[in-house]
Amino acid sequence: MHLLWCCVALVSITAHTAEPRRPDPLKSGIEFSSAEVRALQQDDFSSPAMLWATRGEKLWNEPAGAGNKSCASCHQDARASMKGVSARYPKVDPGTARLTNIEGRINLCRTQNQQAPALRYESDELLALTAYIGMQSRGMPVNAVIEPQNRRNFERGRDIFYTRMGQINLACTHCHDRNFGRKLLNDTLSQGHGNPYPAYRLEWQTVGSLHRRLRACFFGVRAELPPAGSQDLLDLELFLAWRSQGLKVETPGVRK
Amino acid sequence: MSVARILVPSQAKRGEVVEVRIAIQHPMETGFRMDNNGRAIPKNTVSNLVCRYNGAEVFRAEMGSGIAANPYLQFYFVAQDSGNVEFSWVDDAGEKGSASSAITIA
Amino acid sequence: MNNRNTTTGRRRVLKGIAGGLLLPAAAPVWPQLPTAARPPLLQLVPILKEITGGAPVREGRVKLEIPHLAENGHLVPLSVTVESPMTAADHVRTLYLLSEKNPRPVIAKIGMGPGTGRAALTTRIRLAGAQHVVAVAQMADGSFWAAAVDVIVTETACLDASEIT
Q: Could you say which of A40, A230, C20, C51 is the most buried, measured as most Cβ atoms within 10 Å of its Cβ?
């Protein structure tokens, strides 16, 4: 009897389940947002996020680097060539055989094809380009395919999602699977999807990348912040993409 | 040069009150934020924005740090003759910005 | 027996702790304070005296729309409309947006005229905490009209720094 209850207690303490599950029903963060935030995201003109996408369109056509080539030199009109691309990221780059997100892919292009310096995370230019490219997938379903090449990444990302961390000792799942829709202090918890990123957050007063948002979550539980672009965050990004499968891309989104 | 977008109808009737909008990418730095070394980031806001219609001022906004980052304004003017709607602004650092759009009066 | 109570007891304690943090998301209704219950305008925004030079400020003709509950003080939408024919004889000359508690009380000073056509403006402001926002219109004839709105702000601009994240 005593042993049975010990086992029950042990199972309930361990957050990790055998197979990861998507939240049900699957809901974008916009559904947990205030009317004001929803109004901002819906109106392309007043959405502050769109200012970055507009800059991104300019940068797309600007020559850069020693080769003096712009993105358009190879990719022509982004509305055609980039359509649906973001929705399938992050993915394993055939050249480097490493899991790569859009930021990483842009920098591969810049360094290898344009002979231009890589762009820093959270730099205005990288945010503008990722916002513009992401916007070409807006309205399309998130669709990152898990296959043998990225299986290990997926499993590492899954493990991060379900592992307790930080001084607060919580895993992502505790808030975003078990308590979405409920309030943490004044914030309504969302399901923690990446579909609007890069997004304008009212709190940031600017557009920021998904990695910035993830780092903020690590900070929230007082865990060490993995650097933007690190393997941990890339793996987590892949798991989150799997977890939000089917949700519409909202890039460039608006959140509080 | 920061990104700015304006929304001005291309056509209007004489005497019609027309809605215009402007959105400017600008941090509207308050002067109260600190950098990582504890030093205050200097105040820099878009301070004066003027809208001129065929050269005549129809709207002016003297803004401060109380206006949210990436300022957005939606206001009106009376359409009279075909011509140009011009927006110009300056920030505390002296950076000037401008945008304009043509309007045809039926 | 003992263990069953402990398990239930633990769950109840956890629920108690969690309940403090994780409240169900009910939409609260924040009614506007009746004008009588609100401090007088000169007390809310003392700078009004400088603006008007001591002239009387009447409440009316100005409609100020702001969400009662602003999720984030960094961006609070605001719409203001003044009843005015906007003719050469009768129009809004200047529209002030004033804050009760921001470090700088004047949010914006808007210049209008007959060419403006409609005395209406939509913009987005910053609010450093829950406070009143006051819109004051100075008419062509020199008279002042105002409206005030009480806004609850959950995350404060200017003072809540989140630079780390």
A: A40
